[in-house]
Fold each of these.
Amino acid sequence: MRLVCPFKDDETGKPLHFLWADMRHAFASNMINQLGPNWPEVAESMGHTNPEFTKRRYGHYIKDEAKSHRKREASGAILVNRKGR
């Protein structure tokens, strides 16, 4: 069973459509951005007893960020070269 978050939009009063799992993923990505791949500390913050579980579950955030950084660097280099700098 998946639980739906009970929060409502302040202006409309309509229920917001996101899951508790969405909130956990947002929290995890924020923790990883702040702490880096410090899996024991991230695991403790999330209430996990096994840092390896946390790494398996949320390790893609580190890989995705590194990939995004490489893409930004590559596209920036192309733009600089086109402008003749």
Note: The chain has one domain: 20-82.
Amino acid sequence: MNDAPEPDTPKEARAAEAAAIRRRWITLGEVLAVLAVGISALTLYLNWADKQDERAEKAAESRKASSRAAILVLNADGVTDDRIVIKTTDPDQVIQSQTILFPRALGIAPVETTGDPRIEAGWFDGALKKARARAKLPDDSVGDERLPVAITTRFVVGGDAHENVALYDIGYGVKGGWIAGHSVALRGLSRVATVKDDSAQARIDARWAQLSKP
């Protein structure tokens, strides 16, 4: 008795070959589907990473811009003998109010301004002349004398409020004669350094002591 399998008929062979081809196509299709999912996931990740980088760059630029905006430098926009008009070097900075602190040797209270940044000689003219007399400084001064002050400026940039405290020198001269008397003539404004609010008075007192040495 012969138990060997009978050879497939041509029809069965063709069916078996077709089934094998279908299996290969199914396997290839699965591989392609997996690749497509992987490529899609990679594309999504790269897009997400690009957006994260873009957000980080924008945030860094925003912080830099905010930091730059908070740096305040005051200049004299116009100077007469009795008044200095103050402006910021950055036109985007809008001054809201200021507090001007003087050396204790002058014995005068801080001056507050609102919406009109300025320095007026009348605020300290008499007190400065008395302080100069006590320090034995000359009545007349043809050069540029310096009066240290601390200016606290509250200002707005792009809708954000900021505050800056800095030490400045008011440039001035003293002129006049025995009959008419002497008067202080303002010359300009010069920034010295940024200071902390709680140390501003001590800083201007120390600077006045140095500048008022005969």
Note: Residues 10-70 form the longest helix (61 residues).
